[in-house]
Q: What sequence folds into this?
């Protein structure tokens, strides 16, 4: 019969197959094997009377409940005996049902038969006292985990090593989980704390133990407990016997992250042996605030292989096959939901159904503090002509301003131009408030303009092209502002301009352009650009018309110091940079073959703020044709 793996819950009332109960040991029928009641001078032993090879090592873990005694005593033991033999119960009291009791005294009792090693969980402390248990020892050591070596009847059971024992669980509701491993004659004793193993005795080598018997070819395992004048109930359940393997797990992740940002975890598992783990499984729980989680490409080494991992409803599972020396690094990536704040925790555990994980850390977690992402109000305004002539140049103006509170170091102005615009190109950006611009690109009608916008920074971006000659109808171009690392609180993140394109009826050019400083009147002081526009009828006589252009900087307008012009200023540019002038109904028509010159002056705050007098979307609009 192979014991690996072997599980016994002790849930029933009948003695499980293969087990022999001696002394006070009995099945409770309540999910526990009782080794001693809380009565004086009791000793109980449960022996699994099935031999197994000693060469592969063994790991045994179980729950221990110790309760009921006012001054709890004495303790319990786990032991191994030569597999060629059986045994009855060992000594009571401090002998813990393994060693001989009070050797040489009238009330002496023998220890187990052909014992190889006994591991004591000693509350009262007498398992370390040679006058109470076995041979040699430092004297009473309460609350200790203690190893005693090989022995038979009254021979041996030498004290080997001890370690301080944390407080045991006080009842069935809070049992203590113990892990006992013997690998290549090295003994390790661990107790579970916070979902990991705390080692009490770490790899004590029985080969160096004085008087230790040779390792038998086969072994049998047993559980014992004992009381003396002081008493306690000692009960066990959920015994697991498996091949041991040390396959620790470590997990890393960010200590802080901003809401709305990606988050990545890395889970590392390594099999340090001595046995392969064919069915390792990494499982864990993602925070509910992490969305879109998925495994990245696994990094496997040392012959490790992986099954298909899953992430479902926040729970992840990754099967692994880990030979000795095998390693796996499991990336797990997602995004922290916007609006998240406070701490979030992701955990991971590695387990196996067929191997006992003797690593001190087989479970890990990462707690991350989520902070609010930077935010800024970055509105986008987009302007362009409502009407245009086919074959003529038009411009789109996009204005972006960071009103804070945070900087936007990697903004992108993107958009799509109408396919009926030829030769589109960026004008030189107008930047203020510390804003900077990267190199803009236009490809296939799509444009991108990188921007760095500190708080208070602003940019005016223009794209200019020529409407396809011969095209008439509506054209639409769009734009949007993207702030990948910053929440844009502005509702105005996108723009769109639709332009009605008609055949040209008026050709318009700039004949002259001159600039000068103006100091009078004081309320109109600034820098003036004076234009002479030449308007020519394309085919028919144009009796009444409008001339329009846009792109004036903020604070600019048609020069108010000049009031004797014969045309009407419909829009002076002060509101949105758009200027419209209109001819009278009669007297200034445009005759075919006879162009008409029109002078317009624009006042700016200063030369530096005049954008060199550039105007955009210059257009002549025929209001009435023909007539005299």
A:
């Amino acid at each position: 019969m192979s014991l690996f793996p072997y599980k016994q819950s002790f849930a029933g009332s009948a003695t499980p197959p293969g087990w022999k109960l001696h002394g006070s040991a009995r099945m409770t029928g309540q999910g526990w094997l009782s080794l001693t009641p809380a009565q004086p001078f009791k000793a109980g032993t449960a022996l699994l009377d099935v031999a197994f090879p000693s060469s592969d090592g063994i790991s045994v873990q179980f729950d221990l409940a110790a309760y009921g005694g006012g001054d709890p005593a004495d303790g319990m033991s786990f032991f191994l005996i030569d597999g060629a033999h059986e045994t009855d119960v060992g000594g009571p009291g401090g002998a813990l049902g393994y060693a001989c009791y009070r050797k040489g005294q009238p009330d002496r009792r023998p220890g187990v038969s052909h014992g190889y090693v006994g591991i004591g969980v000693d509350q009262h402390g007498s398992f370390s006292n040679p006058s109470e248990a076995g041979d040699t020892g430092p004297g009473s050591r309460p609350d200790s985990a203690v190893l005693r070596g090989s022995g038979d009847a009254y021979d041996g059971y030498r004290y080997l090593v001890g370690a301080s024992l944390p407080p045991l669980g006080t009842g069935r509701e809070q049992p203590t989980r113990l892990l006992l491993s013997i690998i290549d004659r090295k003994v390790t004793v661990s107790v579970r704390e916070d979902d990991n193993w705390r080692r009490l005795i770490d790899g004590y080598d029985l080969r160096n133990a004085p008087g230790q018997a040779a390792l038998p070819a086969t072994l049998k395992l047993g559980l014992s407990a004992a009381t003396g004048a002081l008493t306690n109930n000692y009960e066990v359940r959920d015994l697991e016997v498996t091949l041991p393997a040390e396959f620790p797990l470590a997990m890393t992740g960010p200590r802080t992250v901003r809401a709305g940002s990606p988050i990545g975890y890395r889970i590392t598992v390594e099999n340090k042996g001595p046995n392969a783990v064919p069915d390792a499984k990494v499982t864990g729980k993602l925070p509910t605030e992490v969305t879109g989680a998925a495994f990245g490409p696994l990094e496997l080494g040392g012959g490790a292989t992986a099954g298909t991992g899953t992430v479902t409803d926040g729970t992840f599972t990754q099967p692994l096959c880990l030979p000795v020396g095998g390693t796996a690094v499991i990336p797990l990536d997602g995004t922290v939901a916007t609006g998240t704040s406070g701490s979030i925790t992701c955990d991971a555990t590695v387990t196996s159904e067929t191997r006992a994980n003797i690593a001190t850390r087989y479970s890990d977690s990462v707690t991350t503090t989520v902070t609010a992402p930077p935010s800024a109000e970055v509105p986008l305004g987009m302007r362009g002509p409502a009407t245009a002539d086919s074959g003529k140049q038009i411009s789109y103006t996009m204005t972006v301003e960071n009103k804070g509170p945070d900087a936007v170091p990697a903004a992108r102005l993107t958009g799509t131009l109408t396919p009926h615009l030829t030769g589109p190109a960026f004008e030189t950006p107008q930047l203020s408030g510390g804003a900077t611009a990267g190199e803009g690109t236009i490809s296939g009608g799509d444009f991108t303009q990188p921007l760095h916008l500190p708080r208070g920074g602003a940019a005016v971006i223009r794209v200019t092209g020529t409407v396809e000659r011969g095209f008439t109808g509506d054209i639409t171009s769009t734009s949007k502002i993207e702030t990948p690392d910053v929440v844009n609180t502005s509702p105005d993140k996108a723009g769109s301009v639709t332009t009605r394109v008609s055949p040209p009826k008026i050709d318009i050019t700039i004949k002259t352009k001159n600039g000068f400083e103006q100091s009078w009147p004081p309320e109109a002081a600034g820098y003036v650009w004076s234009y002479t526009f030449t308007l020519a009828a394309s085919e028919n006589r144009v009796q009444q018309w409008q001339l329009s252009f846009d792109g004036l900087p903020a604070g600019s307008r048609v020069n108010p110091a000049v009031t004797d012009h014969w045309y009407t200023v419909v829009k002076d540019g002060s509101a949105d940079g758009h200027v419209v002038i209109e001819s009278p109904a009669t007297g200034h028509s445009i005759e075919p073959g006879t162009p008409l010159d029109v002078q317009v002056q624009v006042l700016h705050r200063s030369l530096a703020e005049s954008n060199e007098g550039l105007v955009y979307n210059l257009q002549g609009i025929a209001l009435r044709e023909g007539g005299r």
Notes: The mean pLDDT is 95.
